[in-house]
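Lest this sound abstract, we think one record worth quoting, the chain in one-letter code, the fold tokenised, each line plainly labelled:

>
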Amino acid sequence: MFSVMDPEEEVTIGFNFANLTTSVTNPVIEVAVVKGTDENASLIFDETPQIFNSTLVLQRIKNVKDGVNYQFRCKIVAENGDVLVLVDTLPVRTAPYFSGVR
């Protein structure tokens, strides 16, 4: 599971295929809501997936909804032609407010 994300954050998530293959092509990332409600979940992607160091697929996300758990499914084609999938979940929760006063 990814670390908890605050709904005001804009972050990059990653899927590391290094233990499965030496290079990846054609990354496709899909998202589904597994807890909470976000009718526009597909709009949280800020750009297309990027490949870094041959085996790491990166995806920038933003505009997530508080209280929602998003499940991401990253599908790639390995150097030998195999199609591989990694799945992970991102919980979104508003960070507690801290006034700094004791």
In short: The first strand starts at residue 11 and ends at 16.
